[in-house]
Amino acid sequence: MSTNIRAPRRLAAATFVALALALSSCSPPPASQAAAAPASNVATDPTAVLRYIYPNAPGTMDPHVVNTAFANVPLFLVFDRLVHVDTAGKAIPGLAESWEYSSDGLKLTLHLRKNVKFQDGDPFNAAAVKANIEHGQTVPASFVKGDLSSIASVTVVDANTVELNLSAPDVGLVLKLSDRAGAMISPKSMASANLNVHPVGAGMYEMNGDYQVGVKFAVKKFDGYWDPSAQKLAGVQMSFMADTTAILNSIKSGGADAGVVREPEIDGAKAAGLQVVEGYDLGFGNILMNPELVPALKDERVRMAVNLAIDRKEIVDGVLFGYGKVTNQPFPEGYFAHSGSAANYAYDPEKAKTLLAEAGFKDGFAMTIDNVPGPGTRINEAMAAQLAKVGIRVTVRQTEAAAASAQYGAKKADALSVRWTGRPDPTSTLSLIFMPGGSNNPSNMASENAIALFNKQKAEADPAKREALLQELSKELVDHPPASNIVLFQSVTATAGTKKVVGLEGYVTGKLEFRGVGMTK
């Protein structure tokens, strides 16, 4: 597959394309990886069906509606995207072979692959792209409309050329189209009542039966896929299990071939002789907060106190077995949006008490944190004990994942403990968590300076200038803690598997893609 981007017609267009590509490759350095041998170098069994266990079950198979980016892992087996990313997060051709921005940055032209079909036999073409963009913008409960908000209209130039007309320059759009916003659904399937459980895409594998929601689904090789070299399996059987210790035990006992494990299981997987592909990514552990239900959090001094009362190092070393990095920023060190001059919240419970008293909360306050059962429970229990030392009384409430997200978004939960999974472009993370209107910021609170910096970076075509604006914004979010979020640590993504599984690779996005994954006989 070619990774060459068509030469842009004008200088400014070159700047926009360079930004979309170059910035995305400035990813944090990965941790040492015990990676499997690439499938291309190993003879694989074309009849093999991979049994894979994943902890995050999608509530729907509609990629434009599903409310978590963790769902990308199962969904992208079925759905191909306009743009792909390599393991370092760099934009590379997908269903779009090439692209370019206009000189003013207000038009993004995509040149599509020819002779591509959806799994129902319908052609993939510019009309299908237009239908998908409009579906993502308008379908009720869309979770991608924010990523597509800069697109004012879509013009079908010819069968293989489509123009995205923008209301304002959006240099992050190319990478957004590598996410669910760029996932292409068959237009016929889009209107089907079965889309939630039996979708039709243009991806490597097609559904083999319906999705048993929250439990399992199966896919088989799609014989018409445009890149057969990526397909090394006859199919995949994916089941869902929130408890990653149980996932590890299933792999060890032969009940599965591979699956996701969390930090506490990594050493055990290695000790059992399994291969483990691990690496730091753009994800982070965090607490989403709702100041409208916990009025104390509206005071910046209180939010600073909460940050100072959390011993992040104790959580990383004691709960995560050292697999993680202490941070209070949404973007990791080494990434282009990370600020090297932002304040560092060293654990300081005495200063936290002083700030609480200054804000009028000498005796602290109470709040409830919703916790999805699983590995996060240990983190939240440790954090609750730390906050109790400064008078902040935290109740950890066990809540099923879909219900927890829904309650928080509807302003029915004080706070929600989650693992945020990385997004291909920083604009998506910033808009969803930190900006007014973001799905993870129901209070719509943000400083005027943060909003101004966000809007400036989104339209800035010069890579160096945008990088500076993003770093300044990261510093603003640390020095003046937002009401919506507390970042705790940088995540590690780990996949454990038997030695028969080949081609596993770690992605800086934190989400495994199955391109080239196979099994030996």
C-alpha Rg, in Å? 23 Å
Beta content comes to 15-25%
How far apart, in Å, are the first and last alpha carbons? 27 Å
Uncertain regions spanning at least 5 consecutive residues:
1-39
The CATH class of the largest domain turns out to be Alpha Beta
Number of helices, where a helix is a run of at least 4 consecutive DSSP H or I residues = 15
Looking at the structure, the CATH topology of the largest domain is: Dipeptide-binding Protein, domain 3
Q: CATH architecture of the largest domain, please?
A: Roll
Keywords: Signal
Protein name: Peptide/nickel transport system substrate-binding protein
Pfam families: SBP_bac_5
Question: How does this structure look, described?
Answer:
The chain is an alpha+beta fold. It has two domains: 11-30 and 56-240, Periplasmic binding protein-like II (D-Maltodextrin-Binding Protein, domain 2); 280-492, Dipeptide-binding Protein, Domain 3 (Dipeptide-binding Protein, domain 3, Roll). 28% of the residues lie in helices and 21% in strands. Strands 1, 8, 9, 10, 11, 12, 13, 14, 15, 16 and 17 form an eleven-stranded mixed sheet that branches. The longest helix is centred in the C-terminal third of the chain and has 17 residues, at 463-479. 55% of the residues are buried. Pfam families: SBP_bac_5. Keywords: Signal. It comes from Arthrobacter ginsengisoli.
